């Protein structure tokens, strides 16, 4: 198999899924994880990284991808003290490299990370999924949205929705008043110009995650949204270590983004280092809910997506993205065991069929 199949895991203290269970998923290679308790902007200590590495490898899994080393808001805003946080980020990259990390997934979304309006929409079959309803969002204030996310989290922490950061919501919005898309893009390029030379030295690839969803929210700028915008910062810092986490669900939420085409385009450039594969079902122009990975359950042709990944000779890391909550499972929204395991089986099946078909010609 060309790519390496992985599974996101939130660590021993904040995930109800054990490494033992993950290890039993057919075709699994490793886990994608992080040190979620380290405040954003602080250096990840070597001893903590190696402790996590030992835990994962003792379970018979590989420890090669981190998701995420979050970027401090001062870097995104371009504030004077951003250089201090960038130096910390460089040191974290070096520390992770010592532990054998090959790829770091991160994002550059202002204030909010991924966003949904319902974390437990019930489908007719009884399964629960995450939903984004653009019309509903128009009637919510940022504070109301945060309360809604916290209420629907099932008591689990939500990646990118750290409570200590969201307490500063009003002041953050105030600071972003003078930051448009061009300014945010320049701040991203400044960040990359500083960290990519370190990545080249220690052989760690950066893989930026697209904005989720890929359009402006509450007037905040977003720049990792489509082919044109992505190409700007990839060319501005033209290194194979400056790459993408190509998330089908995030980019695909904009109907104008042709996912197989984007995979082939950026894949041929050698800039896709990580794939997040999920399916969504459109319910409006900018509204959707997440589904099983099965093509017929959603709006994406998963065969065509996996075929594009195959055609570029992708040998990087891939994981099933958000799944449904099924069979009575309780857990972090989007991150249950059962449906993501089903997703892995389905994606592996598609890959095997594509591989065998290509060899029959």
Question: Would you write up a description of this structure?
Answer:
InterPro entries: Man_deHydtase, Xyl_isomerase-like_sf. Its cofactor is Fe(2+); Mn(2+). The structure is a single chain. This protein has 361 residues and is α/β, with parallel strands linked by helices. The chain has one domain: Divalent-metal-dependent TIM barrel enzymes (TIM Barrel). Helices cover 41% and strands 16% of the residues. The protein has 14 helices and 12 strands. It has helices at residues 19-23, 46-58, 73-77, 82-98, 134-138, 142-151, 163-166, 169-175, 181-202, 227-236, 248-252, 259-268, 302-311, 337-360; strands at 4-8, 30-33, 62-67, 103-106, 118-122, 128-132, 205-208, 242-247, 272-277, 280-284, 287-290, 317-320. The strands form 2 sheets. It has an 8-stranded parallel barrel, surrounded by 4 helices. A 4-stranded antiparallel β-sheet has the order 5-6-11-10. Helix 12 packs parallel to helix 13. The chain starts with a strand and ends with a helix.
